[in-house]
Known about the structure:
This protein is α+β, with helices and mostly antiparallel strands. The chain is 60% helix and 16% strand. The strands form 2 sheets. It has a 3-stranded antiparallel β-sheet with strand order 3-5-4.
Amino acid sequence: MVYMGKGSKGGERASTRCEDELQHFLNQIMSLYQEDPKMKILFYLAELGKPASIRKIARNVRMSHKNVIKHVNALERANLVQVAYRQSNLTLYRLSDNVRLRTLSFMNCTLHNVTLSDPSSP
């Protein structure tokens, strides 16, 4: 749905709700990312795209093993991260299905907006 912002005139560029939500979401994420070690872990797992051990996460987000365990446990309680594999002394973590679905929805919204704003698209 396309709508005109407050005080918009006919000649001004119409914006979509999805674009506004996207910008707001990105601003929130970036401010959290700079401050919160949990966000660093979430971004790392999202970029990696496959399960990772505590050791691998700690090395790549430059945090102590102990702190990564604490933050991953909190993320697991919040249903943002889940165990992908567990055997005796090795546990691998990945983004939860819930987070992956939200990421896909977010990407779909972004692609939809790119298509709408592309003058060459049908």
